Amino acid sequence: MGRTLAEKVYDAHVVRRVEGEPDLLYIDLHLVHEVTSPQAFDGLRMTDRKVRRPDLTIATEDHNVPTQDILLPIADPVSRTQVETLRKNCAEFGVRLHPMGDAGQGIVHVIGPQLGLTQPGMTVVCGDSHTSTHGAFGALAFGIGTSEVEHVLATQTLPQIKPKMMAITVEGALPEGVTAKDLILAVITEIGTGGGQGYIVEYRGEAIRDLSMEGRMTVCNMSIEAGAKAGLIAPDETTFAYLEGRDHAPKGEEWDTAVAYWKTLRTDDDAVFDKEVVIDATTLTPFVTWGTNPGQGAQLGAVVPSPEDFTDPIERQAAERALEYMGLTAGTPLRDIKVDTVFVGSCTNGRIEDLRAVAEVLKGRKVADGVRALIVPGSVKVKIQAEAEGLDAVFTAAGAEWREAGCSMCLAMNPDKLAPGERGASTSNRNFEGRQGKGGRTHLVSPAVAAATAVKGRLAAPADL
Ligand SMILES: CC(C)[C@H](C(=O)O)[C@@H](O)C(=O)O
Ligand code: SF4
Q: Is the predicted ipTM greater than 0.95, yes or no?
């Protein structure tokens, strides 16, 4: 019987398989950040072990870093300790680190692909749930816990039980003005935040093939928000073109050999998925969330739903609570919802293509009075590129703030936060209660919708301007 892409990558990395026990997988790339690594390094220290493959391990500072005044010491003591601890650990264990201010610094899931470290067919792990982002390259990439981080640091392997396989096929082409973010938000609303639980999801179909690498990363990034272990997309010419010439991509003859192998990384025609979902891309429109989980979403043209719309009692209760937290009334058109803040950034939508989409909308326009708009590049490289293209000038002329690279307002672990009761449109991936600041209210949106919302002062798409 044929195998799926994920099975092929998985099987190629099994170094030990014994009946009744988890498989032991070899890990090709281990990404590290300041939040989930301190205890793992402590564990090594206590048992007098080394990092087994420092050359396959790379660290960056992202969650706790401020996005302005980065030359000053970090004011918050907890954040400062996290970052200092990472620096100390990387120095002691010989791990390459991209610290604040370094040209290679940025959000962990932005820098891996950008450096050409993430490649098709690899196993990629990080103590971070959005590691699924790297699946956009046809890698098997997933988040791990801190004890697993220690295991990988010490052995470069990880015990795993093979997940089930799911296919999400997005047929037809996305209509004009509908983006990868709209697509994945619609998928999660359709299958639910638990819809992918226990599965590795392969995204396929015309709409997926037509996406740029940035768009594919946006889609794979949010796999975890549907509960999936990982999400991935078969590598193709778009993937190869993105990788060619990057710092860590294979060169010369090695490139040709690599591409020949990468071309074999596709699901066989006779492979069987444990679950299949088909989505019609042609019916999609800009999509936003109204609630407090990423599956509580609707088309921008819709109204805030009523809890009565949900037949499942748990969903009904969740909707009721969400409307209360979000300060929303059923029946209100989503386009009438006013926002205080717009955040563009994160590992979901903080890449150059996302910033270009925002600049296209903001060009010659102004951010609405009373709205604060924060535009945060996902990495220093993205920042440099954006400035080379003059995007920063467009942002600041429109009245938006242009910041340094980091996770920023995606989560409330650094100075960029929503105030209690403040309402934001955000290009990030999570809208849980308090995610962007205690009492903050988050609407997840695409970069284009974020930009149009900044101009209108209420949820809007570029077509509304
Ligand atoms: C801090 C980290 C462990 C966390 C994650 O695992 O995803 C963060 O990146 C997030 O997005 O919530
Ligand atoms: S940008 Fe947000 S989702 Fe991504 S790693 Fe940082 S905190 Fe997590």
A: yes
